[in-house]
Amino acid sequence: MTFQPVLPFGGFAGWRFLQSSLASQQAQFSETPVQDRDRDYFRENINKVTSAEDLVGDYRMLRVALGAYGLQEDLPNRAFIEKVLSDGVDSDEALSNRLADKRYRAFSEAFGFGSTLPPRTQSPTFADQVLVRFDRQSFEVAVGEVDGDMRLALAASREVPDIVAAGGSDATAWLTVMGNPPLRQVFETAFGLPSSIATIDLDRQVEAFQAGAERTLGSSEFAQLADPETLDDLLRSFTIRAQLNAGISATTPGATAITLLQNLA
Question: In angstroms, rounded to a whole number, what is the distance separating the alpha carbons of residues 152 and 86?
Fold first, then answer.
């Protein structure tokens, strides 16, 4: 049995529909036999994993682990992933600290290899923490197979509050966004920024993102996204602009609704 997310519309209309049906669709997805088997296997075996080598040596376990952090495309790159994990995060020279994509650092930190402390895989709550992420990320992948923009919007709705909650300076928050390719795409699209902006100096990139936030959301401060209404404004702008960029025709699902939403923008 497989479950395909229901997305009758694209753009902002589709995002609204997905938000309203999210809990029920996620529940249905998590109950599929494939998800059940993967969760059971991970929960039963993760406490046997005490090193990065152990994890990458178990294909099924690694698939769940990478999937939980949105890195499932790296499943074939096991030598690279072993290095990311075995280096840990304590040293500035650790591989995950030198990579622009900070999802690798979050992944390495979560498992706790390469540290003087025991790996976190030995914690009795570790499996549940990873599997919550795995279910959500796997659902996002399934959504992406129907509509890639909806997958990006879901990821942003999950990750942006975490960045705000982490604290730190405004510049640090924007740099975190810029170091997460899917999240960066959401903000670039929502703010009408070209992808080529990634080629300019980092300080100027931060300024461009802040200016985009000022134009689109009314303030350049990242902390404003702690407000659910402001986050909703961001995702509204993203989904409308993304569909505009893709082109709208009379045959586009939800075209009438999208036209009305554009007139209200």
Answer: 30
